[in-house]
Amino acid sequence: MTKENQLSEQEKAIIPLFRQAFRPLFLFGASFSVIAMLLWGLVISGQPNIEFVGNQLFWHSHEMIFGFVTAIVIGFLLTAVQSWTGQRAPHGTRLIIIVLLWLAGRLALLFGAGLPLWLVIAIDLSFLPVCAWLLAKPILRAKQNKNLFFIPVLLLLTICNAFMYAGLVMERPDIQQAGSLSAVLLITLLMSVIGGRVIPMFTANGTQTAKVNNIAWLDKTALMSVWLLFALHFLMLTRFIPSIVLSVLFAIAAVLVFIRGFRWKIWITFHVPLLWSLHIGYWFISLGLAMFSAHYAGLDIPYSVALHALTAGAMGTMILSMMSRVSLGHSGRALTPKRLMSLAFMLIIAVGLVRTFMIWLFPAQISFWLWFSVLAWATAYTLYVIIYSPILTTPRPDGKPG
Prior knowledge:
The protein is mainly α.
């Protein structure tokens, strides 16, 4: 039996869902976001009598970041590392262990109110460090130092998670908020880095046009501005900085991120859903940073509105777009999503706009807008789950591993 045939037999012995990280983590992460969002909708309506760990607001903010977003981030990174290094990423038993760690955290937060809090915390905090170790191994073997950046990011996210728990245990909402906002800013940085790597390339390939070359100083300055915002919030130094200074720092970051995205020519992508959705998701980053600038400048823009521009807007849209593309590309399929995915993209963009503008401009109808956001998000991600489940749970049509 040849080595290729041996590999094929080994691959056939693995359930297709666990042949590459994006498969289970995208499927389960997207499904969990639907469940979590619908539960949140019932919570804000005062209907369910669910005893979450912590409290309802803690559970919602924590699980949308550390339950939903981190599942997709890990699914992406542990898939991309195979392309970066040429080495097989976690699959089979190792991948099952990763998924079970993630699932244990979600179950502990949802149903573990009767468990010792230290046990819930230990279960939940274990996921990202294990994933960081599995990500680091192939990167170190391949000596790809530029991709080592992602390892400290995952460890910093773990510390942000610990901050949220520390705030809960100490009954310090300020520490809890510092942890959640720091995580949001760190994920915003991650989206900015990955966006800069893939959006110009995807745009050139998808539109058959010349690739827009990045400007080194602009990229570095834009990313450093977001790094600075993260560091100030992570180290809880914002209490010592005048609000107007914070407003200026957020404004600088917003402008730099905007210029960077503008150069990628969103206007040539409007006939390619996988492209315009990704561009718009990135543009929500600029909007969110600008709204935080306005908030700190004293304008009548609530903290939660600015926050949801980055979460519901940027994260919700970029994640749905990237999942749709990665699920096709890494399963050996053409980059032509079903037409219904265009509806899903429009729905999730609407969620970002409603949570950003409509709740701010029309607060008297907040209940309606919140339920619209909940149902639109649930519909968008349910469409992804329905459309992509057959792809994520079946072998590659070309017979290759993964």
